[in-house]
Design goal:
Length: 102
């Protein structure tokens, strides 16, 4: 079993399969609990946020520039700017912030 990649891939495939199949097997009725339904509703958004937030800070030369851009993006999104406007504005803010900071 030492250094055999096929065993590792097989174990990974089985675990991935079980994670996806077990909920379908055990949960047959619709979920009626409001707390669980709202929790499951927000799971994709939280997962995307958890993956995106560190990348915003690490993608720039300076984490401060990334943080300034993040705040700018949050404010623009709060005031109903579309995704293209937010991305262009954040890119410009990062460019200017890195020019000033470094």
């Amino acid at each position: 079993m030492k250094n055999n990649p096929y065993i590792y891939l097989s174990i990974m495939a089985i675990i991935t399969y079980l994670i996806r199949v077990l909920p379908l097997t055990f949960i047959k009725k619709p979920i009626e609990n409001n707390f669980i339904r709202s929790f499951l509703h927000y799971v994709p958004y939280v997962t995307l946020s958890v993956m995106t937030f560190p990348a915003i800070l690490d993608a720039t030369r300076s984490p401060i520039a990334g943080a300034i851009s993040l705040v700018c993006g949050i404010l623009l999104a709060w005031f109903n700017a579309n995704m293209f406007q937010v991305s262009v504005a954040c890119s410009i803010v990062v460019f200017i912030a890195e020019f000033i900071i470094l």
